[in-house]
Write a structure and sequence with these properties.
- With 479 residues, the chain is an alpha/beta fold.
- It folds into two domains: 280 residues, 3-Layer(aba) Sandwich (Rossmann fold), CATH 3.40.50; 156 residues, Rossmann fold (3-Layer(aba) Sandwich), CATH 3.40.50.
- Helix content is 42%, strand content 13%.
- It has a seven-stranded parallel β-sheet, with helices on both faces. A six-stranded parallel β-sheet has the order 10-9-8-11-12-13, sandwiched between helices.
- α8 packs across α11 and α13 packs across α18.
- The termini are close together.
- The structure holds uridine-5'-diphosphate-glucose.
- Uridine-5'-diphosphate-glucose (UPG) binds next to α2, α15 and α16.
C-alpha cells in the first residue's frame, strides 16, 4: 500500500485526431505534468505527419522543449490510425471515421500492451481519452486503467448528448417528423429550441440515415462516457452551472477550463502558420476583424464568395484564415476573381496562423467565427465580441450560449446561405463600438469570470486540484 501511494500517476492521453481536440489535450497534458503526473501523449502518425509538414521538417518529440523548460515528465509517441499517411482523411471523412471506430482501438490496445511489457516506470495507470472515442471503457477494463474522459466542447452539448434517450422518447429526435417545439425536459437545461441542437440532432429520420458512422459514434460514445471514472470538461462551472450540476448528479464531472497555455512551446498546428505581426503593426486598436472557420468544417464555394464580397463591401480591415481544404481538398480555387487585388492593403488572407497570438493583438477588434468551442474560449479570453456563423456539430449550440445566453456576440445570418449584404452589415455592426456596445461590455464580464476561474482560488483550479487528488486515490485503490 505504501509503495502504491508514493508512485506517480502515469496517464496515457489520446486526443481525437482533429486540430480542435489535439490543442486542448496538449494544454491539459502540460497542466497535469506540472501537477506531478507522468504523461504519455499519443498522437496518430497522421497528425504527427501534418505537424511535421507544417513545420517543414520532422517535428520529432513535440514536447521536447516543454519538457526541458518546465522539467516535466511528458513522453511522446505515435500510433497508426489504420490508414496510410497519404490517405486524404478530409475528403474521405466517413471512411476515415469508420477506421477510427473499428481499427484504431486495436492499435491503441497494442500500444498499451507494448508499453506495459516494456515496464515503464511508473507504469501507466490511467487513460485520458477524448469523449468521442467509443472504446475507452473496454480498453480501461482490459488494462486495469482509471478511465478519464476529456470533453472539449461546452457542458451543455455533453448534457444534451447524455440525455439523447429523452430527446428520442419525447419525439425531438429520431422520429419521422421531429417535434419543433421547445425542449424543456433535459435536466439542467431550462429550454432549448431544436434549431439550437447540435447539427446531427436537427434532422429527422425522413432526412437522414442514422446508421451512418457519425451516428454510430454518437450513440456509442455517450453511452460509454457514463462508465468513465471521471469526466473533465473544458468549461467553467460559473458559465454553465445548470448542465454541469445535471451531469455531476450522475458521475464525477469536473469543469477545469479554459485549458490553454498562452505561451505554449508545443507545436500543434496542422498547417504552416503565417506570422501576422508585421501586417498588424501600427494598425489602430480594434480596427481589424479576425475571420476563421476552424480546422474541420467545410464551407461551400458560394458562401465563401459571398463572405469575400461582404468583407470587401464593409470597407473594414481583416485577417481571414482560409485553410487550403476549406471548400474541399479537391477544390483549390474558391475566392472570387480579383479578390486579392481588391483586398490589398486592408485584407490579409493566410492558410493558418497562431490564432491566440493574432487575436490577442490590440489591433483585432472582433471575431467572425464558426463557433468552435476553442475559438469561443480564446475570443472571450481576449475580450473580443463574436459574429457567429455556425457550420456543423456543436457550433449551433455554442452559438446559443454566445448570442442568447451570454449575449457576447451576434448572428451573421438566419438562413443557411449567407449573402454579401448580411456580411457587410453585420461586420460593420460588430466592429463599430457603439452598435456592438452590449456584446462588448458583456464579453468583458465573461472574460473576468473565466480568468477568475483559473486563479489559484478559482473554480477551475480548485476543481482541477480535487480531480488530481481523486484520481490519485482511485489509482491506489485499483493497484
Ligand atoms: O489559423 C488558425 C485557426 C485556428 N487555430 C486554432 O485551432 C483551434 C480551432 O479550434 P475550434 O475553434 O474549436 O474549431 P475546430 O477546429 O473546428 O474544432 C473542432 O473541435 C471543437 C472542440 O471540440 C468543436 O467545438 C468544433 O465544433 C470542432 O469543429 C483553436 O485552438 C485555434 O486557436 C489556430 O491556431 N490557427
Amino acid at each position: 500500500m505504501e509503495r502504491a501511494k508514493s508512485r506517480k500517476p502515469h496517464a496515457m492521453m489520446i486526443p481525437y485526431p482533429l486540430q480542435g481536440h489535439v490543442i486542448p489535450f496538449v494544454h491539459l497534458a502540460i497542466k497535469l505534468a506540472s501537477h506531478g503526473f507522468t504523461i504519455t501523449f499519443v498522437n496518430t502518425d497522421s497528425i504527427h505527419h501534418h505537424i511535421s509538414t507544417a513545420r517543414q521538417g520532422e517535428a520529432g518529440d513535440i514536447f521536447s522543449e516543454a519538457r526541458s523548460s518546465g522539467n516535466l515528465d511528458i513522453r511522446y509517441t505515435t500510433v497508426s490510425d489504420g490508414f496510410p499517411l497519404e490517405f486524404d482523411r478530409s475528403l474521405n471523412h466517413d471512411q476515415f471515421f469508420e477506421g477510427i471506430l473499428h481499427v484504431f482501438p486495436a492499435h491503441v490496445d497494442d500500444l498499451i500492451t507494448k508499453i506495459s511489457l516494456r515496464g515503464d516506470d511508473p507504469p501507466v495507470t490511467c487513460l485520458i481519452a477524448d469523449t468521442f472515442y467509443v472504446w475507452s471503457s473496454m480498453i480501461c477494463d482490459k488494462h486495469n486503467l482509471v478511465n478519464v474522459s476529456f470533453w472539449t466542447e461546452p457542458a451543455l452539448v455533453l448534457n444534451l448528448y447524455y440525455h439523447l434517450h429523452l430527446l428520442i422518447s419525447n419525439g425531438h429526435f429520431k422520429s419521422l417528423d421531429n417535434r419543433e417545439d421547445v425542449i424543456d425536459y433535459v435536466p439542467g437545461v431550462k429550454a432549448i429550441d431544436p434549431k439550437d441542437l447540435m447539427s446531427y440532432l436537427q434532422v429527422s429520420d425522413k432526412d437522414v440515415d442514422t446508421n451512418t458512422v457519425v451516428y454510430r459514434i454518437i450513440f456509442k460514445a455517450f453511452t460509454d462516457v457514463k462508465k468513465a471514472d471521471f469526466v473533465l470538461c473544458n468549461t467553467v462551472q460559473e458559465l454553465e452551472p445548470g448542465s454541469l450540476s445535471a451531469l455531476q448528479a450522475n458521475q464525477p464531472v469536473y469543469a477545469i477550463g479554459p485549458v490553454f497555455s498562452t505561451e505554449s512551446v508545443v507545436p500543434t498546428s496542422l498547417w504552416a502558420e503565417s506570422d501576422c505581426t508585421e501586417w498588424l503593426q501600427g494598425r489602430p486598436t480594434g480596427s481589424v476583424l479576425y475571420v476563421s472557420f476552424g480546422s474541420y468544417a467545410h464551407v461551400g464555394k458560394k458562401e465563401i464568395v459571398e463572405i469575400a464580397h461582404g468583407l470587401l463591401l464593409s470597407g473594414l480591415c481583416f485577417i481571414w484564415v482560409l485553410r487550403p481544404d476549406i471548400v474541399g481538398s479537391d477544390v483549390p480555387d474558391f475566392l472570387p476573381n480579383g479578390f486579392m487585388e481588391r483586398a490589398q492593403g486592408r485584407g490579409l488572407v493566410v492558410q493558418w496562423c497562431c490564432q491566440m497570438a493574432v487575436i490577442s493583438n490590440p489591433a483585432i477588434g472582433g471575431f467572425l467565427t464558426h463557433c468552435g468551442w476553442n475559438s469561443i474560449l480564446e475570443s472571450v479570453w481576449c475580450g473580443l465580441p463574436l459574429l457567429c456563423y455556425p457550420l456543423l456539430t456543436d457550433q449551433f449550440t455554442n452559438r446559443k450560449l454566445v448570442v442568447d445566453d451570454w449575449r457576447i456576440g451576434i448572428n451573421l445570418c438566419e438562413k443557411k446561405i449567407v449573402t454579401r449584404d448580411e456580411v457587410s452589415v453585420n461586420v460593420k455592426r460588430l466592429m463599430n463600438e457603439e452598435t456592438s456596445s452590449e456584446p462588448r461590455s458583456n464579453v468583458e464580464k465573461v472574460k473576468r469570470r473565466i480568468k477568475d476561474a483559473v486563479t489559484s482560488v478559482g473554480s477551475s483550479e480548485v476543481n482541477f486540484k480535487s480531480f488530481v487528488g481523486e484520481v490519485g486515490d482511485r489509482i491506489e485503490i485499483r493497484n
